[in-house]
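tool_call: predict_structure(chain=1)
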Amino acid sequence: MIKEEVLTRIRSTGVVAVVRAETGEQAVRIAEACLEGGVNAIEVTFTVNGALEVMKELRRRYSGGELLLGAGTVLDPETARMAILEGAHFVVSPSLSEETVRLCHRYRTACLPGAMTLREIIAAMETGAEIIKLFPGDSLGPSFLKAVRGPLPQAQLMPTGGVSLDNAADWIHARAAAVGVGSQLTAGAKTGDYASITQNARLYLDAVRRARASQS
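tool_result:
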């Protein structure tokens, strides 16, 4: 899948599921529940034990292009390369590593580095990153994103951390390119309630669609 298609699909869907789990099996089940609910951009973080095996298994199960497979919590280019070799379509970092962004550019893989300040956002843009992860979102809030978009209307930002069903629309109204959602989406996995994850996925997609429709 080419880089431009990956970025377009992330923007179009508007929701990236951030998968953190206690086991690899749990991570796979969370991803499946999200996909069933329509969220097809799945970021498997390297905090998951055996994250590469999880990516490999998801690629095996979903080989028809229905899955946008992401690698998250990528701190260095070596880890990014391992993820790309396992079929990751996009790479997400909590902060900006220019070496990691360059590695992803080299292999035509979408890279979403993290940023928290205006200077970091500009630095990430200067590396050629097309979508930047605004992290931690709950420490900044939609008003921060809206303020940034004043001097930087070209910035494509994806808040992650603290995005909930209560504030997802606020982030979209502030012109977020997409939202990254973790525990607020996947909490049901702790009790084995994967049906709730599927339901939450649908609710997040609906919240994004409604917010975007209200802007047009």
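agent: The chain has one domain: 3-215. Proceeding to next step.
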